[in-house]
Amino acid sequence: MKPGLRQMVILAVIALVAAACGDAGGEADTTVGGDTTTSAGSEATTTAGDGATSTAGDGEEGPIKFGMLIGVTGDYAPYYDVSKAGADVAIAEINDAGGVLGRQVELVVVDNKSTVEGAVQGFSQIVDVEGVHVLGGPESDGAIANLQAIKDLQLPTICPACGTSELDEAGGDYIWRITGSDSDGGLIAAQFARDAGYTRVAMLVQNTEGASAPADVFKQVFTEIIGGEVVADVRFDPGQSSYQAQVDQAFADEPEVVYVGSGFEAGGIILTEWQRRGYGGGFLFSPDMVVPEIAALTEQGVEIGDGVARAAIAAYDTGSPAYESYAPRYEAITGEQPTPGLYDANQYDQYIILALAITAAGTTDGPAVAAEITELLNPPGTTVYSYADGVAAIEAGEDIDYHGASSSLDVNEFGNLSSPNFGEQNIVDGQWSQVATVELDPSLRP
Amino acid sequence: MTPADMQNIIFGLVTGSILAIATVGFSMIRQTEGFINIAHGQLLTLGAFLGYFFVATLEMNVFLAGLASMLLVGLFGVLLSIVVFRPVAKSGPLAQLFTSIGLAYLLFGLIRVVFGANVTFFPTGFGGRLDLGPVNVTVGEILIIVVAATVVGLLALFLTQTRLGTWIRATASNPELARLRGIPVNRVSYAVWFVASALAGLAGVMVGLIGNVHSELGWTQILIILAAAVLGGLGSIYGVLAAGLLLGLAMDLSALIIPTSYRTVVAFGVLILGLLLRPQGLFAAKGRREA
Q1: Does the A24-181+319-402 domain belong in CATH 3.40.50.2300?
Q2: A425 and A435 in contact (C-beta within 8 Å)?
Q3: What CATH code would you report for A183-315+421-444?
Q4: Do B216 and A297 touch (CB under 8 A)?
């Protein structure tokens, strides 16, 4: 390499590193009263009382900062716009109702780049630099990465879209999850099996964490709580060209239904092989199978339509007054209907919950706010469906039970939904369609 | 023998037939060109995508689609030999091996750009199920076994009954001597690349038909192909055929006694056992030359 060229390469590398470092310190989008502005994070973090970072920096004046640590870029980027729209609906509703404790609410958005490293960096920025009072928005990876820091800092945090089973028993003190756990996918499948009267089930499960965890829950619930029999539990590695031997094993003892916990790549092969040999019976699918590629197999002669294959994915409580109020406001921003798989209503609910908790606590102090969250999500109390109604009830001295746009939001001692809503999905005319809304039966929890 | 044993033998025959077709071409390149062509797996992927394109988009008959894929992948293989491998041939088999690894990544990327990263399924039926006593087989599976056997038979005839086939065997046996005896080694090389690549294309269509079509196909297949080639003796086409069938049977029969998630482990377990008992390969008479 010539010296000149070498120097150019070194300069280019330095420039790239500098650019990357500059980006890491980045800017945050903020929203006050529905208007979005951009400000560089420069506010200093202060430590209050017992060492917890709570009312960072601003004492009793200025806007209350609601953090949103989320994947603006990276793998989760496709979810960002709808998530932000859901959050914006909530912030506007809160500020239109007079804000929280008489102060306006400001939404501070920091990009976690859809990575664990980005989540850790972003958490530091949103807490230390931006000084948020409460936090929302994180996905599974980011929530787990920052779980201990959230507890240490006593920062009330709500996870609107975390499926990870690692949160099944980790929350309820400073972190709550307002969507179903991945484990619930196994629970709801077992509930389907029970309600359909199945007693003999086989399982075909991919050897990956995402597929195995809910499948194990399904097996445990179906055999130990429901009292059914799993006649074959066949596990397989993904990436094979054929699963004929595995399919044959699963159907050897003529089960009434087969639970398929798989990605659609292997699942599609399994279904075509099932069709070729005419094994018959029916299927209970894990949520990963609810994709257009699987539904399209019906057009190629794979007869899994009309209830032969059933699955459940997260669903909104569309009959709730909170949903009926939220949906048109969301649609006005996005031009689209709320979509359960995109968690926009969960993003909305989290900020209404946090605003009501601060109102009930009468302070932004972390432990005081956190102490209110489980209370206001569960009965007893006056059922409220909006921020304004909640504030009115609190000011009247009543306990409240907030029912959200996504679900009733009742939570257990670990901060997880007791009875998340699911939509039963069948393939109709070559497409997945929701045919019923099903509430998870909490009595099935192991 | 239980019905389950017999059923898994049928599955193993189907798996083994496809594996044998894929491995014969791989072994021919190794034998005549003197290096291990890791890009062979990507040619298989290309065949699968081309077959899918012909059937799904052009609505071509699946047999015609298979033939067209064989032809195009065969010609593409010849092109690769001229543009990529011949220029580095003087640097030795190690350089060719690493070139083939680089080429595999390049082809993998190009296939994803052209055909996308989505998983697709052949929009074609597989015929009805035929019950044969305690076991059953589908028409499509019978056709795969028949096509594979026919192709192998034709290949054997080509290699033993035609002048070009004789030249190929002579070149594979001793390239320098073949050159000195006036055998047109370039023509032989083109023929080998065409046949080997076409067989990869056919295997790709077969894999796509029984399973699905996706861009990772080549990576998942090349290790098993390598295992079958080594077990068969690298230099012996009949050994490679036998090894392909043996591995296919071993993988599917193993499902009767151990969890199916160990299917690939079984393949390599058989390979290690085979090499311990017969280091030169199943059918090779002499020690193998190193690539």
Answers
A1: yes
A2: yes
A3: 3.40.50.2300
A4: no
Q: How confident is the model at residue A24 (pLDDT cuts 50, 70, 90)?
A: very low
Question: Is the full-model pTM beyond 0.80?
Answer: no
CA A33-A38-A42 angle, 5° bins: 110
Residue A18 has what pLDDT?
Answer: 42
Q: What chain B residue is nearest to A239 in terms of C-alpha separation?
A: B220
Q: CB distance B252–A297 less than 8 Å? A: no
- Those residues of chain B whose CB sits closer than 8 Å to some CB in chain A are 4, 7-8, 11, 14-15, 18, 118-127, 129, 136, 138, 140, 207, 210-212, 214, 216-217, 220-221, 252, 255, 259-261, 263-264
Q: Whole-angstrom Cα distance, residue B183 to residue A40?
A: 75
Are A300 and B18 in contact (CB < 8 Å)? no
Interface test with A, best of B261, B262, B265, B266 (most A CBs within 10 A): B261
A115, HSE (Cβ side, Cα atoms, 13 Å): 7
Nearest to B20 by CA among B243, B186, B197, B222: B243
Tens-digit pLDDT profile for residues A277-336: 888 899 999 888 888 889 989 988 899 998 999 998 888 988 899 999 999 999 999 999
Contact B236, B283 (CB under 8 A): yes
Following DSSP, what letter does each residue of B188-220 receive, concatenated? HHHHHHHHHHHHHHHHHHHHHHHS-B-TTHHHH
A246 contacts B210? CB cut-off 8 A: no
Residues on A contacting B at a C-beta cutoff of 8 Å: 207, 234-237, 239-246, 248-249, 252, 264-265, 268-269, 272-273, 276-278, 293, 297, 299-301
Do the beta carbons of residue B120 and residue B53 sit within 8 Å? no
User: Which has more confidence, B183 or A361?
Assistant: A361
Beta pairing, strands A157-159 & A175-177: parallel
The nearest CA of chain A is from the CA of B289 a distance in Å of 31
Domain regions of chain A by residue span = 24-181+319-402, 183-315+421-444
In B, minimum Cα distance to A302 occurs at B125
Beta strand pairing call for A200-206 and A175-177: unpaired
- Cα(A92)–Cα(A77) distance, rounded to whole angstroms? 23
B274 to chain A, closest Cα gap in Å: 23
From A245, A299, A301, residue closest to B255, measured CB to CB: A245
Q: Report how far residue A82's alpha carbon sits from residue A344's, in angstroms, rounded to the nearest whole number.
A: 6
pLDDT at residue A5, as a whole number = 37
**Hey, what amino acid is at A377?**
L
Q: Is the ipTM of this complex over 0.85?
A: no
Minimum CA–CA partner of A299 in chain B: B123
CB contact under 8 A, B129 and A278: yes
Please name the residues in contact with A319: beta carbons below 8 A apart, sequence gap of 6 or more: none
Share above pLDDT 70 across residues of chain B, in percent, rounded to a whole number: 96
Q: Are A157 and A174 in contact (CB under 8 A)?
A: yes
Tokens encoding B283: 């059918």
The helix/strand count (H/E) of chain B reads as 12, 2
Average pLDDT, integer, range A210-231: 92
Structure tokens at B258: 């151990």
User: B89, B96 in Cβ contact below 8 A?
Assistant: yes
* Tens-place pLDDT, residues B10-60: 888 999 999 999 999 999 998 888 899 999 999 999 999 999 999 999 999
Q: Do A235 and B259 touch (CB under 8 A)?
A: yes
